[in-house]
Amino acid sequence: TYALYPQRNEIRQYDSLDGLWTFVREQSNTNGTGLVNQWYLSDLSTFPNATQIPVPSAYNDLVEQREWRDHVGWVWYQLKYTPAQRDQGLRTFLRFESVNYFAMVFLNDKNVGNHTGGHLPFEFEVTFDYTKINFITVAVNNTLSNSTIPPGEFQYKTEVYTINGQPYSVYPDGFFEQTPDFDFFNYAGILRSAYVLKLGSVFISDVWIIAQANGSLSYTITLDKSTTGLTANVTVSSLQPTTGTIVYSGTGLQNSAIVQNIELWYPRGYGYPSLYVMEAKLLNGTQVIDIYRETFGFRTVTWDSDKIYINGKPFYCHGFGAHEDFELHGRGYNPVVMIKDLNTMEWMNGNCYRTSHYPYSQERAYEADRRGIAVITETPAVGMRLFDNTNLALHKYMLTEMIQRDKNHPSVIAWSMSNEPQTYKNESKAYYQQLANVSRTLDSTRPVTNVLDTNWDDDQIAEWLDIICINRYYGWYSNTGYLQTIANSYIGNFLAWKQKFNKPMILTEYGAGAIAGLTREPGVDFTEEYQVEVIRRVHMALDELRKNGTITGEMIWNFADFMTSQSTTRAAGNHKGVLTRNRQPKMAAYVIKDRYYNLTVELANA
Ligand code: E9O
Question: I need a surface site. Which of 46, 215, 383, 549 has the fewest CB within 10 A?
Answer without folding.
Answer: 46
